[in-house]
Amino acid sequence: MTSSEMNKKLEEVGSDIHNQAARLTEAEQRVNELETVNMDLRDSLSYCLKQQKNLLDKVTDLEGRSRRNNICIYGIKEEAEGNSMQTFIANFLKEQLSISQDLQIQRAHRSLGPKPRDAAISRSILVNFHRYDIKEKILKAAWGKRVFYDGKLISFAHDLPTEINNKLKEYRNIKKILKEGKIRFQTPYPAKMRIHWDDGPRLYADASEAADDMRKRGYRVDAPRSTTADGEPATNQDAHWNKAASSHFKRVREKLREFQREQV
C-alpha cells in the first residue's frame, strides 16, 4: 500500500471519528434535554398531585358538612317500615328513646343499592333532620341505652363521607387496646383521636401518630394499615418513577462517554 493510499485511509478514519464525535455530542445534548424535561414533568406531576389532594380535602369537607344533619341506623329488617319510612322512623325513635317533641324529619330512606336477597341482611336507614340540635339529641339518647327492634340490637352513627370512614377504620386496633385498658378516648370530626391519659388528654391527627405515641408508652400497637387514597401513595410512586428515570439517564450518559473515550 502506497503512502498516498495510507493517507487516504487515515483521512477516512479521521472523518469517521469526527462524525462519531459529532453524533455523540448530539446524543448527549438530547439526553440533557430529556433530563430537563423529566425534571419539569416531575415538578408538574408533584404540583398536580398536591392540588388534587387539596381539592379532594375540600370536596370531602363540603360533603361532610352537607351530611351534618343526617344519622345512619343499622339493624332494622327490610320492609319493617311499611309504606312510609318517615312515619315509621319518627314513631320508632319517639317510642324507643322516650322523646315527645316533633323530630322534624325531612327525609328517611334505605341506603342506595339493591335489596339483599338474604333476609338476615338489611340495608342501613338514612335519616335527615331539619335541625342539627335534634339530630345530636337523638344520637346522645341512642348511645346512652341499648335499643332493640324485633329482638335485634340497633346501632346509630353519624353519616360520614367514605374518605372519613376509611380513616376512622384505621383506629380499630387502637380502639381495641384502649377499651381493654379501660382508657377513655374520643374521635373528633373529621378523623382525629383524643385519648385521655393519666397525664392529661392528647389529640392525635391520625392513627399513625396515635400508634407511635402508644408504642412509646409501652403498648404493643401494629402500624395502622392505610385504607385511603389521599394522594400520598401516588406521590411516592412519582418519586420512585423520577428516581428510576434519573438512574436511566445517568447510565445512558456514562455509556456514551465510555464509547467516546474508546473511539479517541
TrEMBL record:
Residues 10-44 form a coiled coil. The keyword Nucleotidyltransferase does not apply. Residues 222-247 are annotated as: Disordered. The keyword Zinc does not apply. Residues 225-239 have a biased composition (Polar residues). It comes from the Eukaryota. Keywords: Coiled coil. Gene3D superfamilies: L1 transposable element, RRM domain (3.30.70.1820). This is L1 transposable element RRM domain-containing protein. The lineage of its organism: Eukaryota, Metazoa, Chordata, Craniata, Vertebrata.
